Amino acid sequence: PFLLKAFAKLIQQGYHYQLVLAGSLKTSEYNSDQQNIIDTIQELQLKDRVILTGYLSNEALSVLYKNADLYIFPSLNEGFGLPILEAFKFNLPVLVANNSCLPEIGGDAVLSFDPFNEDDLIAKIKCLIEDPSLKQAYVEKGKSRLSFFSWDQAAKQMIALFSHK
User: Fold this and answer.
1) What angle do the packed helices 2-12 and 118-130 form, to 10 degrees?
2) Residue 18, SS3 per DSSP
3) Which end of the chain is less packed: N or C, by CB atoms within 10 Å?
4) Dist. CA 13–CA 76, nearest whole Å
5) Cα dihedral 86→90→92→94 (10° resolution)
């Protein structure tokens, strides 16, 4: 709902974008914002501006990444943040909530925002939208940051960890 409220303000300021919420809205039987998200979309009259995809195959998800202008990760509780790396792979500038592991995973390759301050998020979105050179700089930083994460590197680190007695 936080992202939807910020997006509505951006639209009110004359920006013409669509917001795609990819993946299942219901993360578990006991942990779901599904109804809150649907209610917020209706309340803010965003039905024609927000796409709810539900679960996506890897192929469908890659199409979304390829056609996106930026990636926003407003999570309040995250274990690792793999979608950040996916967005880097598809050359997207990334905005993340400034909590949990997200800023650590993204490093200097992400713009972070206060997940309780819609105006902070809007300002960061506008910076990327309005400044193509800044947007490209974050894309380049993302490519560089992605090189820190690989299965080969993880395997080598695990082997080194286990080989020390």
Assistant:
1) 50
2) coil
3) C
4) 26
5) 10
